[in-house]
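Please review this one:
***
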Amino acid sequence: MSYLALARKYRPRRFGEVSTQEHVSQTLRHAVAGDRVGHAYLFCGPRGVGKTTLARVLAMSLNCPDRTPEGEPCGVCRDCSHIWAGHTSLDVVEIDAASNRGVDDARELRERAMYAPSEENRYKVYILDEAHMLTREAWNALLKILEEPPPRVIFVFATTEPRKIRQSASPILSRCQRFDFRRIGTTDIMKRLDEVLGAEGIEADPEALRAIARKANGGMRDGLSLLDQVLALSDESVSMDSVVRVLGVVDEQRYLDLFDIVIERRHGAVFEFVEELIDEGHDLVEFYYGLAEKLRLLLRMSLDASSTAGDLNEDLRDDFAGRAAAFAPGDLVRMLAMASSLEADGSLRRTGRPRVLIEMLLLRMSYLDRTVELEEIIQALGGTPSRGPDAPAEATGSGVPGDGVASPQSPARVRVAVSSADGRDAAPVPAEGTLDTIWSAVLGDRERVERGLSFLLRTSATLTETGKGISLAVTGGPASDKLREVATRQALLEALALHSGRESAEISIEIEEGDRSGGEGATDGKAGPPGSPAGRVTRDSVRESRLNELVKRAPQLERAVVELDLELVD
């Protein structure tokens, strides 16, 4: 006798044996038991989740002479066995709509349906698989018989793409009872695979079954077919090694190795890692999908340490939890967004050589800026994070003289992205000289101050010393308009700090022009909306306004932004 595939050999024979589709199987069973069976059904859902199987079980139940009062077929009588095996008979006919899709095929079906069943107490059941492949004309030919069907005739349409039926034959939907089948969970597929292997007398490694179930992607038939494929290599047991060899599944330890590379920023190791994947015979596209799942898992564990992550190997749970703790949730969100973009823009689907795309993705992750809390930056600079409104204010040198009220309420936690590149070599700080010497050095700094701006500042700017540091006043003309650009003003501030030997918090720039004024610094509170003329709101002005508000609450922030090249990301 020829070998029978596991997906066929262990196809359910009763409603209760259909995995995770109870919302459909129980409804149909109750309809049979209560004699309330509809004349047309539309079964929608992914492949391999039980659509055709339930259609056959329904036909078995309607025509089984030994049906139970609850509506279950016996599954073993001659009629049930004939229908279960998919053999065509006078009363139960399966039609592949993909190859019988024309109007002539529909007319022939309509004529056959007009004949009565072979016996008085039987039903004629027509099962049309891949029903979305029928043409518009074929659907139109079936409209009348679906609206007024002959007695004891039932149609079951199964499809993976119901939207195509809606587009080509929307009137059909109102003539059918629609059931949406769900994808089957990894745990349910594992349970069924274990039952099948138990019936076959074969032992299996739970991790191997988990890998097969994940690769099945919600389809029970796919899971059983993959199991058949693995058993062809070794029919004595199912091990993780055999699954990796046959299916090319990437071992979870490889993802842990990759996360170590990203955490330790070993950029060159990315190429070696991808090379090893290829040498081991892994499909890079499959690896990509696995990477997206593992990033999602890390994000879930980072946000909720008690997350169960049910499809994860118990032995590796602590290892993944450790990797999740090494990343900030914001970093994981950005990494997951980077990975998702490859599929979203279609580049991974269109390319014939995914290696370069995967390598660039992993390199971008290894170079990704690290996200830290604002409080960490302030503490690293020797400051004290802002406290709530109930905490008393401490006397500091940067406070307004005579101001004894508590500091404003601290803002929500703000994250900043810190560049992972090596820090820039700090220029030597010159000895503090006269204001004229400092100003001449600033105007001659071509790296930070453009030649045109330098010329304008010679006639419209005055550098003075204040009790808190130095202040640059710019009055009227094109220079003030030029300094309303955030990048230009920031570069000038850096030049002043470099050549004066002072901290950025000790330097202020005041821009005055008519009724408009703007400023930048940690100590003056005169600045209007920076970065744009009065009354005009731009993206830069909003960012600068937000930064100024934060600076009022944490003066050390401005120093951090300037010296550490930070960017506000949240």
About this structure: The radius of gyration is 36 Å. The longest helix spans residues 284-303.
